[in-house]
Amino acid sequence: MAQDHRVQAQRFELKYLIDDAITPQIRDFARSYLELDDYGLGSPQCAYDVHTLYLDSDDLKTYQSSINGTKNRFKLRLRYYDDKPETPVFFEIKARMDNCILKQRCPVSREAVPILLAGQLPSPGQLLTREARHFATLQRFNMLQLQLNAKPKTHNNYSREAWVSPNDNSLRVTMDRNVRIEPYFLTDAPVKMANPTRIFGDVVILELKFTTRFPGWFADLVRTFNLMQYSASKYAEGVLIMGEERFHDGHRGHDWEGWNPRAPRAAKKREETPGSIVEM
Of 225, 205, 153, whose CA–CA distance to 13 is shortest? Predict the structure, then answer.
C-alpha cells in the first residue's frame, strides 16, 4: 500500500454500531456523495485490511484515560496494512481535545520499527518522508513513549470499507468489520494473529468523519437509518473484554516465546449496554 498523505490533522469523528444487513444501503447512500477509497477498489466488500499496534505503559495509562473519559487524551500506535518490506509503517499520535480528533503520523520503513519501539530515532534513510512536520511528529512520539515508558500491548486487525470526498478528503465514511485483538509485546509490526478475540461480534462500526461542519447529507443518513451514536474504541474495548490483567505484566514482552496465548484466562463479561462501549 502506498503512502497516504491525505490524512487530516484535525477532524471530528462520530461512531455508530450498525447491523451488517444495512451496509449495502449505506454504501449506496454514500456513493451519491463520495467515491470509494483507492485501496478498496476491486477488493471483496470494497474493503482492505488495517493493522494497529497499540503502545501503553505497564499500568495502562492511555487505556485508563479512555475508559475514564478524560477530556484531553492521546494514544500511541503503529498503523500499517500488510507485511511487505517496501510498504510503510506509520507511527501515529491520535489525540482527543474536547470533541476534536487530532492525528499526527510519520511513515517509516519496516526495518526502522524495532529501533523506534526501543526508544531511538531512525537514520535518515529509514524515513519515508522529507517533510519537517513528519519528523517533528516522530520526535514527539518518541518523547511521549519515553515519558510513559510505553511498550507494545495489543495487535488489532479489522477490515475497512472507506468512502472519501474526491478532492480533499475532508469527508470520510468508513465501515469496519471483524474487529479483532490480542495481547502483543514484541517490537515489530505483525500481521498474523495467534489467538485473537473478536471485540464487536458481527456488528459493524460506522464512522462519519468531517473537518469543518457536519454536512446536511450526514444528518439525512443518520435520520434515514435511525442511527444512534456510540463510543467504540478498538483498543480500550478490547482490553476491557479480555481483562486488564492480560496487559499489565510488562516482563512478558521479553518472553513472548514462553507465553501461551491459548492458556486459560480470566474473562470479563461485557455488559450488553451502550454504556459499556468506551471512547477512542
Answer: 205
Residue 120: helix, strand or coil by DSSP? coil
Residues in contact with 94: Cβ distance below 8 Å, sequence separation at least 6, in sequence order? 74, 75, 77, 101, 102, 103, 280
- How many whole angstroms separate alpha carbon 234 and alpha carbon 54? 10
What does the block give as the cell for 84?
Answer: 511487505
- pLDDT tens, 106-159? 999 999 999 999 999 999 999 999 999 999 999 999 999 999 999 999 999 999
**Length of the chain measured in residues:** 280
210 forms beta bridges with 12, 171
Where are the domains positioned within the chain?
Answer: 10-276
Please give the class, per CATH, of domain 10-276: alpha beta
